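Posting this for the archive.
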Amino acid sequence: MNKLRYLFFVAVGLLMTAGTAMAQATRAAEEAGADNINSVNKYRAIAIGFGFAIAAGLGALGQSRIAASAVEGAARNPGAAGRIQTMMILGLALIESLVLFALLIMFTRV
């Protein structure tokens, strides 16, 4: 578990330092004819695609965990299956709305 946590923080650190790669060009580079806008737009589209893929994948993992827990809970206590199903549907709807918000952001930023 500690190795996974360490790997997560390394990945977050790398992603945080990647923002400097999208920094604006200096005046000297602009005068020399550097084409930063096209580069930023290309990499922005790629980054948005990866971001949405991560959001959709993690949303699917969350939905599968909710479904598995709901089935297990209904198997343990069949009398509460109706309440469990209601809470499961609510949780699934909230997760799906987060993925749809990510899709909306993706389309507005590209």
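Residues 62 and 95 are 7 Å apart (CA to CA). The two ends are 37 Å apart (CA to CA).
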